[in-house]
Design brief:
Blueprint: H1 4-9, H2 15-22, E1 35-39, H3 50-63, E2 66-70, H4 77-89, E3 94-98, H5 102-114, E4 119-122, H6 127-133, E5 138-140, H7 143-156, E6 162-166, H8 172-185, E7 193-195, H9 200-213, E8 219-222, H10 225-237, E9 245-249, H11 253-261, E10 266-269, H12 272-289, E11 297-298, E12 302-304, H13 309-312
Parallel strand pairs: 1-2, 1-3, 3-4, 4-5, 5-11, 6-7, 6-8, 8-9, 9-10
Antiparallel strand pairs: 10-12
Length: 320
């Protein structure tokens, strides 16, 4: 905690400066704000994380703290582990991190906890993993449950054979999404999940090859814009859009337009803004007052369909 006396001394010289300082939390000064670092597993090309970047920026402004975003440029998890080690060594006032791979990140996250740095996990990983690592709590979407809920919707619509387009198969959470979908349909996941990579042209070619080899497929699940956009291009190019049942995780302008056009049946919204804004808020409360919510926070899943898309499409990429 930063001394209140120090803060008062910095605020008495000019009335304007005094007013500005009075607006800051009691433990923060304009010259020395608390610093939090959010570390994600996403490559630079993953635009879905723009909403989280926007959320931490707004939360930082609201609470008068500095929030930095760090990630491995190409999504390499070993690089993410190195970034986490470097962040721990810099001794920030809090770390927000996705558990993209428990074994790879376990060491650096435990080092942060041992060093006394408060940690909140978000997005990838489970509540059980977060607790085991010593984090304060986890904010995210139960991925298997989200996939299972999507699968039940697809089953009700008559889907019997499906393809799960996985653009980030090294992340265990992505497999949980596909597994939940398969289990809801009563279909063995083996042979129904495509390791598509993140190159858009390659994703499109891989989906086309799979669909040609498996003409009985009548449902597709994409795991986010990186896999949904190229899959949508293939379906539209092959004039199958609207005929093949198509669902995806997450939202973008293109996905919103496809829902309105009837080319995507629904998107699963894990409300990423909450995954950025809430951990900054919680860390600020924890460092100021020593208080933290007693439970983890499920930020999703919610389902975006043609019936409610008008409510969210204007905020896609910013808040939704």
């Amino acid at each position: 905690m930063k001394a209140t006396i120090k803060r008062i001394g910095q605020c008495i010289s000019l009335s304007l400066i005094a007013l500005a300082c009075a607006a800051l939390p009691a433990h923060v000064t304009a010259e020395d704000p608390d610093r939090y670092v959010l570390i994600s597993h996403a490559p630079d090309s993953d635009s879905w994380w723009n909403t989280i970047k926007n959320a931490i920026r707004e939360a930082g402004e609201t609470h008068g703290v500095e929030v930095q975003y760090r990630n491995p440029t190409n999504g390499d998890l070993a690089d993410m582990a190195r970034i986490t080690q470097q962040t721990v060594a810099s001794n920030p006032d809090g770390i927000i991190i996705s558990i993209a791979d428990f074994e790879v990140l376990e060491g650096p996250i435990r080092d942060a906890v041992r060093q006394g740095i408060p940690v909140i996990t978000i997005n990838s990983g489970t509540q059980e993993q977060s607790r085991e690592l010593g984090a304060l709590l986890h904010i995210g979407q139960p991925e298997y449950d989200a996939g299972h809920g999507a699968g039940l919707r697809a089953k009700d619509a008559g889907v019997t054979s499906f393809l799960c387009v996985n653009h980030y198969i090294t992340n265990p959470a992505s497999v949980e999404r596909c597994q939940g979908f398969a289990d809801a349909l009563g279909v063995d996941l083996s042979g129904h999940m495509l390791d598509a990579g993140i190159d858009p042209s390659e994703v499109e070619r891989s989906v086309e090859a799979y669909m040609r080899q498996n003409p009985d497929v009548n449902g597709i699940l994409a795991l986010g814009p990186n896999s949904a956009h190229p899959t949508l291009r293939y379906l539209e190019r092959s004039r199958q859009a609207g005929d093949v049942y198509f669902a995806t995780f997450d939202l973008s302008d293109q996905i919103a337009a496809a829902i309105k056009a009837g080319h995507i049946d629904f998107a699963i919204d894990q409300q990423p803004y909450l995954q950025g804004y809430l951990p900054v808020t919680f860390l600020d409360l924890y460092n100021r007052y020593g208080i933290i919510p007693a439970n983890n926070v499920n930020s999703g899943p919610g389902f975006i369909t043609a019936e409610n898309i008008e409510l969210v499409e204007e905020l896609a990429g910013e808040v939704r």
